[in-house]
Amino acid sequence: MKKLKRIFSLMIAAVMVLAMNITVFAATHSITIADAGTGELSHTFAVYQIFTGTYGNGKLTNLQWGANGTTKTGAVSDEVVEAIMDVSNGTDQEQLAVIEQYVDFDSTAFATVTSGNSVSVDDGYYILKDTSEFAGKNEAYSLNVVRVVGSDIIVTPKSAKPTIDKQVKDETADKDTASNDNNGWGETADHAINEPFQFKLIATIPKDTDFSAYKEYKIVFTDTMSVGVTFDSIESVKVGNTVVDPYVEGSNENGYISTATTGLEGTGSNPWTITINNIIPYLAEGESLANGVTIEVIYNAYLNEDAVVNEPGNAETSNKNTVDLQYSNNPNVEGENLGRTEEDHVWVFTYEMPNTKVQPGTGDPEGTNVPLAGAGFRLYNAGGTTEIPVVAVTDEDGGVIPGEYRVAAAGETGIEMTSAETTGAFNISGLDTGTYILKETTTPEGFNTCEDVTIVISASHTENATGDSATTKMNMTMNGEQSTNNNILNTSGTVLPETGGIGTRIFYAVGAVLMIGAAVILITRKRSAK
Q1: What is the radius of gyration, based on Cα positions, of the chain?
Q2: Of 110, 129, 123, which Cα lies nearest the Cα of 149?
Q3: pLDDT tens digit string along 234-288?
Q4: Residue 344 in contact with residue 142, Cβ under 8 Å?
Q5: How far, in Å, CA of 185 to CA of 463, rounded?
Q6: What is the pLDDT of residues 384-424, one digit of tens each?
Q7: Does the predicted TM-score (pTM) go above 0.90?
Q8: d(CA 447, CA 129)
Q9: Regarding beta strands 153-155 and 28-33, do their DSSP bridges make them parallel or antiparallel, or are they unpaired?
Q10: Which helix (H) or strand (E) holds 81?
């Protein structure tokens, strides 16, 4: 009997040891944050333990307050469990509004984990808070994630964010060669100085359920114009198909706010902004950000006298204009917390018409035409009926540069162009593609006035595949012949025969002699008669 009791005691002890071992080696699992995708930024999550418990059959039982619960120790009351369960069929936002009441976010997080890494935790109820540093970066925070952990889990950060695009409008006949838009919108365009045209800014919020977490959504377009571009006015602002009017204090608090004013000239580094503090009120009835929406701004501008000009064979791209977008990027907090996209670019080209006035000469090589100074010209449209006014180009000190002209800007009075001394040049910059007529309006003494000259400028232009540069190819013809410099010839006047030449003068001389002889005879006869 004693022997049986001893065996039974040993068995009880073994069971107790086993039970102790089960307690000591409680179940642990990993929470893994998925790797950031290509081009995505790494996320950092703080892991907060709300409850601990025992996981089995898909349920967490024996709930105790965890390290970051609002109550630090003891069993979780039925009231708390019921409050959480009451929103189990609600949206993520509705569930979080209740669950977050039971988390002490000011306490030290149970653990921290970053993209591509894991952390070990016990069975329990956890909330993961995105604590990444994304201010001013092109990334969005994930909505707080709640998980029941009873096995290894993987959490994929959700960071839906908008994109930005800038376009420029051109005439459809010579639009961007890579553009399929029949209305002339593309990444490149060409225009004359002082010719009005438009830019378009497009922010696209993609269809994604993550956006439904935002109670307000702010966007800020930051537009940077090159030194050769002048802002004129805002044409339109829309959220979807809804027109957004300018901000008016007290009556239109959600209207757009623009820092640009008429006549603002680009500097290449001093941007202007257009802001909508909350686009949600402009969504169509029954719509939400989760369905996706575009925000479009169209503004009017023109090239000024500082625009970089393309000559035949020159692919200069300095008239580059950019935009980026700041946007709400944290659905977990209210207030100012903005991400920022990369810049998007467009380019605007304008062209130079090189001209040289020449005369037949004995240049080197022999017979080469030589420059002719002092000829005056004016530029006209294709029909030759409307003058295109031009002005002289000046240097930094205000001095006129001989032979250099540009299309006149608003308020400037056009002048006659004069072929320069020594070079005979009268180059015209700031022209769009098209057909032009040059008319000689002042002819140098001793030369014949030349016939009107027809010059055609054509070009192709497109953004390069990298998206960070663009090129143009300009072509020019003069009177149908290919040209890189229009040599306009003046011929000398011809000495034509005149009436009253040498034969007549002889008759005058003979007549005079006869008259003198007659006078002498008459006087002699009178004297003889006496």
Answers
A1: 43
A2: 123
A3: 999 999 999 999 999 888 888 999 999 999 999 988 899 999 999 999 999 889 9
A4: no
A5: 13
A6: 999 999 999 999 899 999 999 999 988 899 999 999 999 99
A7: no
A8: 86
A9: parallel
A10: helix 78-85
